[in-house]
Amino acid sequence: MFLLRHGESYFNLHYSATRVDPGIEDPELTQRGLEQAQAAAARLAGVRLTRMIISPYTRALQTAQPILQAHRLRVDIMHEVRERTAFVCDVGSHPDLLAEKFPQHDFRHLPPNWWHDRRETTEETVARANAFRARMAARDDDATTVLVSHWGFILALTGVSAGNGEILEYDPKTPAPEQISWHH
User: β-strands 167-169, 2-5: how paired?
Assistant: First the structure.
C-alpha cells in the first residue's frame, strides 16, 4: 500500500522554526503543503488505486483532495489512523464542522471527540498501528490502497520518519518495527 504523510501544515511551519507548540487546533495546510499535496497526486497519477483511507484532521483531508480529483476511489475516513496526540494541533474538529468544510465525505460515523483527550502514550499509538497493520494485512486490496495520515502514526506503523508530503510504499504483512525513534 501507499502511505502519504500530509503536506506541511501551519503547525509544522511554526514548530519547525521555533520548536514551540504554536497552539493551533486542527491546522490547515500552508501554500507549501498544498503544493506537496499536488506533487503527491502527480506521483500517484499513474498508479492503480481503488481505496483511500484518510485521517479526519483537516491537513490530511486537504492533502487527499488532489488525489481524489485524479482517481475515483472508495474513501474511508478513519480516526484510528490519526496523529499521536502530543500537541494542540492534535485536537481535531467536530464531525459537523468537518462535514461543512468537506461535504463530499461522510463523517457521521465519527464520535464527536474522535481525537485522544490527553497525551497519547507510545504504547497506545503503537497498538493503533498494530491493529491497523493486522486489518490491512487481512484485506486483498492493500496494494491499491493509499493512506493519508501523520508522522507519528506512520512512524509507529513502519519505523520510518516520513517528511511532509512523502509517500512510502508499505506491505502490511511485514512485522512491526522492533525499535521506533520518536525524535523528529
Answer: antiparallel
Q: How far apart, in Å, do the first and last CA atoms of the chain sit?
A: 24
Using DSSP bridges, classify how beta strands 51-54 and 145-149 pair: parallel, antiparallel or unpaired.
Answer: parallel
d(CA 113, CA 36): 28
Q: What is the 3-state secondary structure (H, E, C) of the chain?
A: CEEEECCCEHHHHHHHHHCCCCCCCCCCECHHHHHHHHHHHHHHCCCCCCEEEECCCHHHHHHHHHHHHHCCCEEEECHHHCCCCCCHHHCCCCHHHHHHHCCCCCCCCCCCCCCCCCCCCHHHHHHHHHHHHHHHHCCCCHHHEEEEECHHHHHHHHCCCCCCCCEEECCCCCCCCCCCCCCC
pLDDT along the chain (184 residues), means of 10: 98 94 96 98 96 98 97 96 94 97 97 93 95 96 97 96 97 92 75
CA distance 147 to 37: 13
Report the C-alpha gap between 142 and 147 in whole angstroms.
10
Three cell numbers written together for 172: 502490511
Q: pTM (2 decimals)?
A: 0.96
